[in-house]
């Protein structure tokens, strides 16, 4: 029975719902994008909103019983606004507060304090006004610069579409040798020397696919597919075939045979079309009847 | 109340103990009720509403931030000279030094790169980082030099020194250079006339100080009528030669007492 299903023998362990990379266009996404996805969504981010427990076991304070540490993470909410700014790994936490022991719990949202500040990218040679948190600025200082902060941290720790987009831009710019700093060659070489070690962990395809959201990646893939299969309209194809046949028949108006034409039959030059239209128009109409257009606008 | 206070402090202490490396964020939370243990290599149990009750361990937003150390790339007024490692508040450092490109982060390479060369050391341009601030302060004020209306006098550096002291500046007589012309009094034609003298700071920086002569009598009935905010009004130059040097401006800052 199992062999007859599309999942084959795998069905024996239960039906598995196809994921986003197993159906539709998602299945065609390259490995480079899947690698980024794993870094972004499937890696455990650094502890931000909680104090991580390092030990594997802990002793109960009251009973002194030893029990394993099973730290279950808090659900964090990434709002659309968090993707428009750079929050440095912070997110909104939805939960309850128990303010008094005799009172019912109250819902509460812990939202990071946001402020607008300027960040400076050396590689892009640009100052940007972005919404940041205090943590972002501290991390920038810790990494000794905005570029270092973006390049050092994983996608799961950046936690913002804007930061990932900037990271891709910076990586691309580094690959091209910092074209933004071409006015100062000495400074450019210094910057390249400082940041080029980060390029070692990416191939050029990975950089190309880095930092896209799933929908953006699908759109990028669609554009690539469309560009790859160039559809020639039948009109063009048949017309060039007809011209070819006319030439073979030795009709002078079909034009001379082009060496370029023999290579690609699908192509047709404007000269051919001109010649053909001349051919059509040059045939003398014997009757006035041919000048009447029965579908033309009525003159009243 | 007391109990609550104690518990929060306890949590803070616990957090400090557990914290191996500093976790910096806005809110650090912990669960009030830990969920029950689940089997290893199995999915965790379904969380109940009470497992989403969180307690605040620490809010680092309200904590005082330590100073930041940076290396200056150029001379910065009021901060330091080129190559200096200065330690200041992080927001000031980021907004006023790092973003304008006056300083970089403190790394061994940067300290070597921006340290002063011998040629730069020998060519002293600034006596101190704060001297230019004093110059700016001195040049922004209009000094009222109050002289006697009854007794004859000749203007000397110690008059300027005393007037400066009244305005909140302390300087030695050697630093004050008066105009070469002799200024004598009492002369009511010289009332509210402006002249400029030069103050030398740390034997290097020079500030041009605008001074105006005012007459004052010990007898209250002899005193001149008080003019409200006279330092903001335009004044004529006292000396012909100094006319070009010290053009009078209409609006001046009042003297800081």
UniProtKB/TrEMBL annotation, chain A:
InterPro entries: Ribosomal_bL28. Residues 253-277 have a biased composition (Basic and acidic residues). Residues 253-300 are annotated as: Disordered. GO terms for cellular component: mitochondrial large ribosomal subunit. GO terms for molecular function: structural constituent of ribosome. Residues 281-290 have a biased composition (Low complexity). Coiled coil: none annotated. It comes from the Eukaryota. This is 39S ribosomal protein L28, mitochondrial. It comes from Drosophila mojavensis (Fruit fly). The lineage of its organism: Eukaryota, Metazoa, Ecdysozoa, Arthropoda, Hexapoda.
TrEMBL record, chain B:
SUPFAM superfamilies: L9 N-domain-like. One of its GO terms (molecular function) is structural constituent of ribosome. InterPro entries: Ribosomal_bL9 (IPR000244), Ribosomal_bL9/RNase_H1_N (IPR009027), Ribosomal_bL9_N (IPR020070), Ribosomal_bL9_N_sf (IPR036935). It comes from the Eukaryota. It holds the Pfam family Ribosomal_L9_N. The keyword ATP-binding does not apply. One of its GO terms (biological process) is translation. Residues 68-113 form the Ribosomal protein L9 domain. Keywords: Ribonucleoprotein, Ribosomal protein. GO terms for cellular component: ribonucleoprotein complex; ribosome. Belongs to the bacterial ribosomal protein bL9 family. This is Large ribosomal subunit protein bL9m. It comes from Drosophila mojavensis. The gene is Dmoj\GI10854.
């Amino acid at each position: 029975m199992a062999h007859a299903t599309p999942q084959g023998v795998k069905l024996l362990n239960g039906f598995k719902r196809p994921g986003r990379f197993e159906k539709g266009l998602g299945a065609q996404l390259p490995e480079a994008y899947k690698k980024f996805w794993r870094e972004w969504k499937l890696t455990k981010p650094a502890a931000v909103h909680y104090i991580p427990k390092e030990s594997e076991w802990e002793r109960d304070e009251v009973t002194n019983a030893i029990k394993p540490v099973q730290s279950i993470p808090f659900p964090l909410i990434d709002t659309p606004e968090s993707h428009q700014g750079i929050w440095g790994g912070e997110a909104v936490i939805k939960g309850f507060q128990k303010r008094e022991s005799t009172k019912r719990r109250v819902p509460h949202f812990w939202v990071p304090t946001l402020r607008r500040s300027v960040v400076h990218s050396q590689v892009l040679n640009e100052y940007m006004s972005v919404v940041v948190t205090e943590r972002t600025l501290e991390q920038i200082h810790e990494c000794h610069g905005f570029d270092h902060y973006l390049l050092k941290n994983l996608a799961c720790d950046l936690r913002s579409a804007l930061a990932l987009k900037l990271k891709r831009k910076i990586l691309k710019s580094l690959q091209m040798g910092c074209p933004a700093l071409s006015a100062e060659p000495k400074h450019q070489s210094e910057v390249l020397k400082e940041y080029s070690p980060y390029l070692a962990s990416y191939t050029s395809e990975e950089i190309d696919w880095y930092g896209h959201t799933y929908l953006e990646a699908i759109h990028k893939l669609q554009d690539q597919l469309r560009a790859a299969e160039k559809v020639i309209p039948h009109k063009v194809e048949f017309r060039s075939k007809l011209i070819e046949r006319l030439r073979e028949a030795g009709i002078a108006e079909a034009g001379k045979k082009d060496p370029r034409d023999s290579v690609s039959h699908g192509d047709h030059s404007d000269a051919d079309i001109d010649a053909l239209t001349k051919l059509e128009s040059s045939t003398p109409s014997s009757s006035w009847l041919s000048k009447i257009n029965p579908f033309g606008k009525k003159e009243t | 109340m007391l109990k609550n206070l104690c518990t929060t402090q306890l949590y803070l202490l616990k957090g400090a103990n557990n914290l191996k490396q500093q976790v910096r964020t806005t809110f650090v939370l912990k669960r009030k009720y830990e969920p029950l243990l689940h089997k290893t290599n199995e999915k965790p149990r379904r969380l109940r509403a009470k497992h989403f009750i969180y307690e605040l361990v620490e809010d680092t937003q309200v904590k005082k931030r330590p100073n930041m150390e940076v290396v200056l790339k150029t001379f910065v007024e009021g901060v330091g000279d080129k190559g200096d490692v200065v330690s200041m508040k992080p927001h000031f450092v980021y907004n006023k030094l790092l973003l304008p490109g006056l300083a970089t982060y403190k790394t061994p390479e940067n300290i070597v790169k921006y340290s002063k060369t011998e040629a730069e050391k020998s060519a002293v341009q600034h006596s101190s980082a704060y001297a230019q601030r004093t110059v700016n302060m001195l040049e922004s004020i209009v000094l009222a030099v109050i002289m006697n209306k009854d007794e004859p006098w000749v203007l000397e550096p110690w008059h300027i020194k005393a007037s400066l002291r009244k305005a909140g500046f302390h300087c030695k007589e050697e630093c004050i250079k008066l105009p070469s012309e002799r200024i004598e009094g009492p002369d009511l034609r010289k009332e509210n006339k402006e002249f400029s003298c030069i103050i030398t700071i740390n034997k290097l920086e020079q500030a041009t100080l605008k001074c105006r002569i005012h007459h004052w009598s010990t007898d209250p009935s002899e005193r001149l009528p008080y003019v409200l905010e006279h330092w903001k009004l335009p004044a004529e130059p006292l000396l012909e030669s100094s006319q070009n040097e010290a053009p009078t401006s209409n609006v001046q800052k009042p003297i800081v007492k």
